[in-house]
């Protein structure tokens, strides 16, 4: 479907028939990450101008009614998993295992293309960091974040997310 490869690649710019044809012709992979981890990463990358994580979360919650940054916007609103039938959903923390499967399915060499980190190290670091950052938040902020990300938490198996509680 190279005739649709233009500078304007947002699906919303095409009609329903074109969208269905395009999506049917591609292997669709969705990479998902615990929304709270996404917030932490955005804060640590300096994407917010807040001096503390708690005030950054407050800014995010205040911006819920305004145009929200894609960095912390709920995944369900960004990738439309109820409308798009993804062939693969890859969870952060299982990249090595799941990407190996995808590469094998595509007939590509697995060992030379996989990331060099181990998922267990990444998961341990995020577990510790998540607990530290979560402890900075008020009960009200925790409840508001859980409500803000409720559709992500319902759509994806973030069973260990602190926002699920």
From TrEMBL:
GO molecular function, one term: sulfotransferase activity
Transmembrane spans: none
Major localisation: Golgi
Gene Ontology biological process terms, A to Z: carbohydrate biosynthetic process; dermatan sulfate proteoglycan metabolic process
Assigned keywords, A-Z: Carbohydrate metabolism, Glycoprotein, Golgi apparatus, Membrane, Signal-anchor, Transferase, Transmembrane, Transmembrane helix
EC primary class: transferase
GO CC term (a single one): Golgi membrane
InterPro entries with a match to the protein in the record: Carb_sulfotrans_8-10, Sulfotransferase
Entry EC number(s): 2.8.2.-
Membrane topology recorded in Swiss-Prot or TrEMBL: Single-pass type II membrane protein
Cell location: Golgi apparatus membrane
Family from the record: Belongs to the sulfotransferase 2 family.
Name of protein: Carbohydrate sulfotransferase
UniProt source species: Sakesphorus luctuosus
Source taxonomy: Eukaryota, Metazoa, Chordata, Craniata, Vertebrata
